[in-house]
Automatic annotation (TrEMBL):
It is a multi-pass membrane protein. Belongs to the SLC35F solute transporter family. GO terms for cellular component: membrane. One of its GO terms (molecular function) is transmembrane transporter activity. This is Solute carrier family 35 member F1. InterPro entries: EmrE-like, SLC35_F1/F2/F6, SLC35F_Transporter. The keyword 4Fe-4S does not apply.
Amino acid sequence: MEIKMKDAWGLLLVVLLGQLVAFSMAVASFASSLIANLGVDAPLTQSFFAYLLLTLAYVPILFCRRQKLRIPWFWYLALSLIDVQGNYLVVKAYQYSYITSVTLLDCWTVLWVILLTWYALGTRYSFWQFLGAGTCVAGLSLVLLSDVKSPDEQDPRKIPLLGDALVIAGTVCYALSTVGQEYGVKTTDRIEVVAMLGQFGLLLLQMSGATLFNLSLLTSDMWVVAIRVFVYQQQINWLYYLAFVVVAIGLVIYSLK
């Protein structure tokens, strides 16, 4: 009984941490969208502080260990450049697309990761995982259709399809970076990888696994829906809600296996 209670509290903690990450991502998305709407073009500056804070937190730990890097520094340099480019493209997309579309289209990262790990790391996936990924593709296609049918009359500067293209390009960079990080974590350890790349997301992944992590991040899309409706007072095409449900179903199917 005591063990079951510990498991229940541990699961509750993981869920709460996941929602904290989801809400933080929604707030970050809102900040990026607000800055873009104000006409400020500074995508790299916005990402700089996140990398700085994580570096300040983990690099001292790495120094205290007094160990040489197990992976060459130029490997981390290449991964960092790819990751920064991904952040740049996604943040830049807020100038042209909707906050809801940008956050949901981030799920393309999962699809690229599947392809990359299949060919690069030899990971094998089941039929149900491919079915889940295919369902996500269908849902994400509805997002693009929603943006085509929903021209923004309030802000003529918006070019939704251009913004969506930037997001998808950014997810390719995220996928390359993620697969590289997975290789790094399996080769060395989390501290070295996080210290060198400034990627705090690896720590939640270690605690809860990919299932809860993916589902938790999906809830951040509902937070940004609320932001768009109540803060920006914009209407959302019904296709977006259908896309969200389809992507959620796809992630659940994928995560079950």
